[in-house]
Amino acid sequence: MSDLAHTDNDYSLWVKTIRERYLQERTKAIVKVNQELLRFYWQLGKDIAQLHVEDRWGKKVLQSLSQDLKPRSRATTCPSKSRNTSSTKYCPRN
Quick count: other Cβ atoms within 10 Å of Cβ 1? Predict the structure, then answer.
């Protein structure tokens, strides 16, 4: 901690409040992102089931889909780890 935090109680309390608010907002953001990803994967699984993709494009369609969804450059913001064959294969299919 800085000297100011050690000597000024008002400043120290303000820093503590900011830290707590930051952590709360960060948690809310993480929860929101996870909700949206879950919604996306649920819809993807639904699409896979409704389109009967394996019947239509063959047994290796999920491998192809996984490969085709990988980022084409480093500028792409979605990491390729999140779209591997396993995660695509186990999307909900209701």
Answer: 7
Phi, psi dihedral angles at 19 (to 5 degrees): -60, -45
**What is the rounded distance in angstroms from the CA atom of residue 65 to the CA atom of residue 27?**
32
Q: What is the largest CA-CA distance in the chain?
A: 71
**Residue 61 to residue 45: CA distance in whole angstroms:** 13
Distance CA 17, CA 11 (A): 10
DSSP 17: H
Separation of alpha carbons 66 and 86, rounded Å: 9
The pLDDT tens digits for 56-84 are 999 999 999 999 988 876 555 445 555 56
The tens digit of pLDDT for each residue in 15-51 reads 999 999 999 999 999 999 999 999 999 999 999 999 9
Q: Is the alpha carbon torsion for 86, 58, 64, 35 positive or negative?
A: negative
